[in-house]
Amino acid sequence: MKNITKICCIGAGYVGGPTMAVVAKQCPNIKVTIVDLNEARIAAWNDPDVNNIPVYEPGLSEVVAEARGRNLFFSTDVDKAIDEADMIFISVNTPTKTYGAGKGMGADLKWIELCARQIARVSKSDKIVVEKSTLPVRTAEAVKDILHNTGSGVKFQILSNPEFLAEGTAVQDLLAPDRVLIGGDDSIEGKEAIQALVDIYAQWIPLDRILTTNVWSSELSKLVANAFLAQRISSINAISELCEKTEANINEVSRAIGTDSRIGPKFLKASVGFGGSCFQKDILNLVYISRSFGLSEVADYWEQVIIMNDHQKKRFALNIVRSLYNTVSGKKIAFLGWAFKKDTNDTRESAAIYVADELLNEQASIQIYDPKVVEKQIYGDLDYLETRSAELNKSGVTVFNDPYEACNDAHAIAVLTEWDEFKDYDWKRIYDSMLKPAKIFDGRNILDHKLLKEIGFKVYGIGM
Ligand code: UDX
Ligand code: ADP
């Protein structure tokens, strides 16, 4: 197997963009071309001002500034990039199906299949194809099937290399990952392909952190890692509701159990519910696969993680309604945060969307501020739910560029994302501008509740 000198990545999204930018930064000897069908997205990645790239991640603009034009390129010419490359990463979206068999559960592999067919059609030399998108187990089989039946004589090796980066810390996670996972065939050619990818990562990652497995273990491990992480959040969120009924405090419980080294302190923050493009989608995949093998107990076990998360989001919204005397009709509720977590402009599956939807059903008037999410995205997220018309969403929601304006005249404030800047606001000024009694629902337990109470706020945390 020859050395890899040219890489192509199909899909310039939250995974493909940061991952390939870091590969290009760390491997100046490899030419990395990221392609996407979406012309506006590619244009934004090529914007002369690196602050305008379409994905917000701390440190990413600097990485792009360093590598772009040197060995990192963004293009819409998918065919050319495939043809040139020795190795092709598939990093397109794999959302939950919204139609037909597996609707609401299984992954929609339409875009993956299109990529495979395009690679099959364009390739004139042997290639290694790497699955980067999160895929249900045994997707590689479908990709293999398409690529091995082209009749062109070109040989393909298929690897699974799931991404474990978390948004908001992507650059750090990519530079110093806990581990890199590479799954491939046990054949000689398969092992050579695995080695080619290991050699790339080994340029900056210690070898003992690069794990190799068969393709199926690699695909399944990605789903299982996310299911375990999400399960911890649903577990602590379940206990948060119990805390609210008793004198227990969820922060104290988290600390008390997290110091047990067998449990560990991470991912025990009670919240309004987890969001993001991975957790729900991956668990639904796990549930769908289990059910399709007739494993109903396994499926039910994991589905409960999602049920608990939906409950947590709904409960948060209903708490607001209940404490505003059972009606929010016509009342102004300020939202601080719309992204699914801090330090990202990604809003996929954000708890904020579902909390807003519940409150709009109650005819609330919502005033939103998020440091990185643009107005168009917020309306798009609500319209996507198809709960009501776009006009009604527009009339029920106003988006602000200034947090103080968003909170002005509000009956209540809800904190939906844990952005650091929220902690440092002039809370006295906000209190003075609100209707009384002024209420704060801290869905992330990040504010200084003692101080807020001293100012005069009525404060509602999660699990306390
Ligand atoms: C996750 C996995 O962490 C990552 O390894 C995988 O590659 C993709 O899915 P991501 O979705 O980007 O990453 O963010 P993550 O930090 O895992 O947070 C997911 C959600 O859980 C967020 O909404 C976050 O606010 C919430 N969360 C996280 C909590 O509510 N409590 C916690 O203790 C931790
Ligand atoms: P992720 O979080 O997995 O990166 P995104 O939705 O952010 O998901 O990014 C996926 C990208 O893949 C999108 O920009 C989309 O336009 C692109 N894409 C999907 N299908 C194709 C295709 N066949 N060829 C090129 N790009 C594609």
Which structural traits does this protein have?
13% strand, 464 residues, Rossmann fold, binds uridine-5'-diphosphate-xylopyranose, alpha/beta, 2 domains, 6-stranded parallel beta sheet, globular, single chain, binds adenosine-5'-diphosphate
Structural commentary:
With 464 residues, this protein is an alpha/beta fold. The chain has two domains: 6-213, NAD(P)-binding Rossmann-like Domain (Rossmann fold, 3-Layer(aba) Sandwich); 251-460, NAD(P)-binding Rossmann-like Domain (Rossmann fold). Helices cover 44% and strands 13% of the residues. It has 18 helices and 14 strands. It has a six-stranded parallel beta sheet with strand order 3-2-1-4-5-6, with helices on both faces. Strands 11-10-9-12-13-14 form a six-stranded parallel beta sheet, sandwiched between helices. Strand 13, helix 18 (449-455) and strand 14 (458-460) form a beta-alpha-beta unit. It is globular and about 75 Å long. 46% of the residues are buried. The model has no long low-confidence stretch (mean pLDDT 95). The active site is at 278 (nucleophile). Pfam families: UDPG_MGDP_dh, UDPG_MGDP_dh_C, UDPG_MGDP_dh_N. This is UDP-glucose 6-dehydrogenase. NAD(+) binds at residues 11-16, 36, 41, 92-96, 133-134, 167, 278-281, 348. Its EC number is 1.1.1.22.
